[in-house]
């Protein structure tokens, strides 16, 4: 199978997944009780003309399939509709909050990658020893801390106690934003470090026992080079696969961290939009998360053969 | 006109207030005195005049406004910011009196017409002058079905709004309506530049479009979800309310604990409406002043089903007599507030005659807790074992205290109450969606008045009114209120309103529980503001300067 065909196949799968997700996201809203119009006219005693006019403004009088068609055609043109709660274009509402969440996710991702791989490697290289035990137990304990608890502990320690970091807001300008987002990204990363750490450890342990590693070692290749060239590189496959799944998980988990640190991001927006029946915003965010998830997986699938040619050659090859 | 505390914005509040409720049980909240000690409180009319100007100050709000469009400004979060940017035809002062605003005077030549003379020399923040055309355009928006104004009820009897002179606008009503003009001190009377309304269209008032009004501060920046910054408007027309601060920044802190921490650390200078659980922690920090001001809100239980057991007046009375209202005040507000037997506060009766006040507040039934009498009433009604459904939401500490207290009171007199907890948004729907109230007997509300007239409260309890949630009907009450609406003289009007208050006190369409003051925390840097619920419409931030 040529690389081009494989990429085309992936893209086709991606589009199909997004289409199915859009159906699911759109029609699930009709299962939720509550009338968006009563939210849009929540003053006292709206006039009947107003109820009709507002219903028509948001196309809520149309049959569901027609509403879907209008919505999906708009989405294809980049128009996600109007937010009911903010009376503003959804793309603007999300665009205003996306930088915070993206920065948070990227920072957390870096922390997860560096810390997770480091801990996993340390444990794998010291397999069975005390250090391995300590790392494993440490990771398990970390993994048991929910991010909101982690957030509160971090605030108590580093904001209120030591005063090193601010406890709320996202700051002005890039440097200030990094400063503001340090604690939230650590709180967000905690649980995921465990996942990456454990996957790294088991993948490396698996590779360490392989023949080619033993052969290299017996031929006198330096330990560092063996680990770098043969162990870590071959272990990257599973690590990469897990990382793809992580990205979407990070966006969703950010809602909890954003709430704890008073950040205005996509996660907290999603939570409040669900309660306020702001369907256009909910639909856009869910689609965004699905998109990020699917794209990350596709990227991992496409990258994998370059990192590990065996996966392209087929499962039988060694 | 009437708005309910924690109604429109219940959803946003949920986060912070739940956190507030949690903080009540945490040791952190109880430092500096027993967590359950009553708070020593008194009403403060005004704080010291500023010693000078300051560059800027920061105020924390429990929620972000949905919009700064005056047509949708219907809650604490929206109005407390907007009040400093946009002005109305009349001005609602901190003592809850009305005085001229953008209308330098008004006349009432016939029972059906209100004529406003527009003030000269006023400019919008973009420098363009205020004209009667702006007034007409701003007011007509409330009648536009496409806008769907939250303030339509103020305009429900308006037939036309026309410019009738170089500086004159005439509003013609379909019949005599004393309440329309009283509403012009609130959001319903806000004037925006007609050009801006056309230019911004659907984006008017949102974080991208912003607003362009005449107030002491101009809109500068809205960072979605985080803050709104206002800047002093140097060409403001009223020298008495020229802003003492060059800038004011409102930060949104949905988490009550975060808000309290920010106030304690001094990173935020002040905040309205603090959870009472945090008051002892704030006063202990000694960094500023905890103040209590005039309010118009009464906390009540809405009887939303008169076809059930509560359809019998004896059962409503029994429940009222069984409630431990002092206990509720103590548990929910640390004793800040007073039990109330009526649905309005004396603060909205300022223009009333002495006789009316006596009728309204002295010649009414005072429901002292009396379990024996309550049990007897339940027995007379044959309602022992009757089941009631009470709907509440996890919004704040008072919501849970009152639901538990109601259930306990009902149980003590042989009634059964099922407390159903719904999401804040579903609770909000109780106030606008009749289908949401099906099968619901009781829910709590803190209902505040936006105009200085108690009739605003009683006009919503007329037969068939949108907010008459239990479809209560009393012909004598309806006749009194309908007649009062047509009377212009406030003293004469108040005598009829007082009788309506007596009927509501006797018939209990809603069960009044208590009234509590509005709370305000001012940090050590700032002073000048007059604590009052008028902060929703009065440019209070302009009065704040250096201590």
Question: What does this protein structure show overall?
Answer:
The complex is a heterodimer of chains A (318) and B (547). Chain A is globular, with a radius of gyration of 24 Å. Chain A contains 13 helices and two strands. In chain A, α5 (90-125) packs antiparallel against α6. Chain A is mainly alpha-helical. Chain A has a two-stranded antiparallel sheet. Chain B is α+β, with helices and mostly antiparallel strands and 547 residues long. In chain B, 29% of the residues lie in helices and 21% in strands. In chain B, the strands form five sheets. In chain B, strands 1, 14, 15, 16, 17, 18 and 19 form a seven-stranded mixed β-sheet that branches. A seven-stranded mixed β-sheet of chain B has the order 9-10-11-2-12-20-13. Chain B is globular, with a radius of gyration of 23 Å. Classes of the chains: A mainly alpha (318), B alpha+beta (547). At the A-B interface, α2, α3, α5 and α11 of A face α1, α6 and α13 of B.
Q: What portion of the residues of chain A fall into strands of 2 or more residues?
A: under 5%
CATH homologous superfamily heading of the largest domain in chain A: MetI-like
Average pLDDT score of chain A:
81
Task: Kindly name the structural category of chain B.
Answer: alpha+beta
Stretches with pLDDT under 50, minimum 5 residues of chain A: none
Instruction: For the record, give the distance between the C-alpha atoms at the N and C termini of chain A, rounded to a whole number.
Output: 18 Å
Overview features:
heterodimer, A: 318 residues, mainly alpha, 13 helices, B: 547 residues, alpha+beta, 7-stranded mixed beta sheet, 22 strands, disordered N terminus
